[in-house]
UniProtKB/TrEMBL annotation:
Organism: Nakamurella antarctica
Database matches in InterPro entries: ADC_dom_sf, DUF2071
Pfam family, one: DUF2071
Lineage, opening ranks: Bacteria, Bacillati, Actinomycetota, Actinomycetes, Nakamurellales
Domain of life: Bacteria
Signal peptide interval: none
Name of protein: DUF2071 domain-containing protein
Residues that span the membrane, as ranges: none
Length: 248
């Protein structure tokens, strides 16, 4: 079980040259507490659920991706600019390395979907998606091509209480859920570990205005969307860089 004091608040050095850079903006984090046994079957070999206060967590993360570039090249203007919604879990491997496990990922451009599947084994799905902002609220909609029942409609209202948002920097649950600088994935019969690096999230508390989601159920987590999430957070933007994947 993770002890709150052991959760790092800043990314360790990447350890190798970056191969990919991206900007993530209009980022919403919705999280539900679950028993660790619920997520354990979804862990790659050599990993187990990362747990805090006796709970594992299932998250829906929605954001806009942009300014993608490879090996320091110029940004890829169209191909690297699209919304994404993922269902994710939290892992720790036998070496004590924490990460994210993606139960599903939705993206609106087909070519990045195919590349991510082939290179990383990530469970990307091609979807029709859009993000919009109005009256202080941010809305996300996604519907998977070939399976429109796998969809999500999320509306949040980010909070602007400076003192309340500042408290998030020392909140162990918020740090546990967002300070994740790697992912674990099963690919070609092996578990890979892929590091990333970015500055701490500029987190804001947020209000969930509306949720109609079937992505979690499609990923194997029935019923979660029927209850309110225990954590609702928002961040305006960060830039992240990825290293090449490593074998676990």
């Amino acid at each position: 079980m993770t002890h709150p004091a052991s959760i790092p608040t800043h990314a360790p050095p990447l350890g190798s040259s970056p191969v990919l850079q991206q900007r993530w903006s209009e980022v919403t984090f919705l999280h539900w507490r679950v028993d660790p046994s619920v997520v354990a079957p979804h862990m790659p070999a050599g990993c187990r659920p990362d747990v805090i206060d006796g709970s594992a967590w299932v998250g829906i993360i929605a954001f806009q991706m942009s300014q993608s570039s490879f090996f320091g090249s110029p940004n890829v203007p169209w191909l690297g600019n699209f919304p994404e919604v993922n269902v994710r879990l939290y892992s720790i491997d036998e070496h004590g390395r924490r990460g994210v496990v993606f139960a599903s990922l939705e993206a609106s451009h087909l070519i990045p979907v195919l590349v991510a599947r082939a290179v990383f084994g990530l469970k990307y799905q091609w979807a029709s998606m859009r993000i919009g902002q109005r009256d202080g609220k941010v809305a996300y909609r996604t519907s998977r091509h070939g399976n429109p029942a796998a969809s999500s409609h999320i509306i949040v209202r980010p909070g602007h209480d400076v003192a309340a948002n500042a408290e998030l920097a020392s909140d162990p649950i918020s740090t546990f859920l967002t300070a994740r600088w790697a992912f674990h994935e099963r690919h070609l019969g092996r578990t890979i570990y892929c590091r990333n690096h970015h500055e701490p999230w500029p987190l804001q508390r947020a209000e969930l205005v509306y949720l109609n989601d079937s992505l979690m159920a499609a990923a194997g987590f029935e019923g979660l969307a029927d209850r309110a999430p225990e954590s609702v957070l928002y961040a305006s933007a960060i830039t992240t860089v990825f290293a090449a994947p490593q074998l676990r």
